[in-house]
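For the sake of transparency, this paper describes our internal protein records without simplification. Because each token names a local backbone shape, the row as a whole describes the fold. One such record is reproduced below, unchanged from the form in which we store it:
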Amino acid sequence: MLTALIDIYKGKIANEEIKETVIIIIGALVKKLSKAGGSELRAVQEAKQLILAGLKKADKPSDVKAYLLSLKNANLPEGIPVLLKYSESGEGPVSSIAVSALENYDISFITDEVKKVMNRIYHQNYRIHEKTVRTSAANIILNNNPTYMEVKNMLLSIGHLPLEMNKYMLSVFQDILRFQMPASKLAREVLKDMKVHNYDRFSKPGSSSAYSGYITRGPYSSATYSLDILYSGSGILRRSNMDTFVYSKNTELHAIQVVIEAQGLESLIAATADEGEEDLESFAGMSAILFDVQLHPVTFFQGYSDLMSKMFSATGDPISVVKGLVLLTDHSETIQLQSGLQASVEFQGGLAIDISGGMDFSLWYRESKTSVNNRGAMVITGNITVDSGFANAGMETRMETESSFNFLSTVQFSSYPFLVCMQMDKGTYPFRRYVTKYERLPCGKSYVSRKGKVQNVAGSELPLHQENSNMCREVFAEQDSSESWF
């Protein structure tokens, strides 16, 4: 597959989006094969050279982004110096992709040199960076064995950052303390210093937030969600980031990430942009990670004219990022039983998934909404048979389930301070299991037993911080009053 994709990429591809998708998926295959011990394969070496050499030669921003996304998927250790270069000196979107790519590396690759660059970006020692880049750099530092002074300097920076970034970083540290993350113990040590831990620093206003929680938690496996929302100083969404991780024993899977970004929308409401973001082009888009694989990003609009045309022609329907079928398992083997007979075992599992999202911006109602909808259905079938000359016996089992996981953010900017309400919910989902046992004898007699169990697991709205709950009450009250007025 990798060889075929390399040949396709070297050929002529008329559609730029398809061409970018091919190089992004090449990076994902490189990581897959390298993990399986095939890093020395000729095709893998050729793909590595194609990504790194292509990044050096790329001159168009779109090409640079595509190669960086491919490098993000490939997770190449030799690509770290290149990512550091683009992180610190690249333009906003390019720098953002490069820093997010570094977030995917194992802690062993985040060296002191990497953290020095991330600290320079966060504290803006050499140049001014966008808020999205600075907050991503902060996450890399905090998630990779930060030092006492690194944590202290970050906490001391709160109060000197742009308004919403102050609130965001404050929420990040509150989430670290509450959710028991790797930096929790060190953060508590730093907060013993009253110069750091005081009312002035911990009472910063704003709507941005960071929150983590459990979707499910058991003795053998668990799943967590995290929701980070960063607003611009004018109250318009700058970036929302929803992550879902699945943990089982010593393994970790980045199941889903959906990121919605927007920039340069301040002119629509005659607001002032934050430092370093005054000349940003109007843009909104979405990108997703599915099972540790970065997918091709989707652009809602780019440029003021595109924004106006989309605003007047928008249907309000979400835009699909990925929709398709995923083969989870296809396993077949023969087991030798102690009786001398052989049992044939077959298992197949499939997943249908649909991830979509959208951004609705209304000047008339002075309101913006962003939505991320994740829907999936999974089916696993198994068949175990023992076939001998005198009898045939077996068992078939089938499990089915389907679920949804949705996020909605509403911002009302008709008054100041803005009202922001975030909602996350997992829908009610059915769980069905069917088991069929059968025996057949040469004489024609047969025995069949069928059993089934169907249950509905109640859905729920996932908890966020109390401040958000209070704000949602105000938003719903405002909506009810406006409806009654009309």
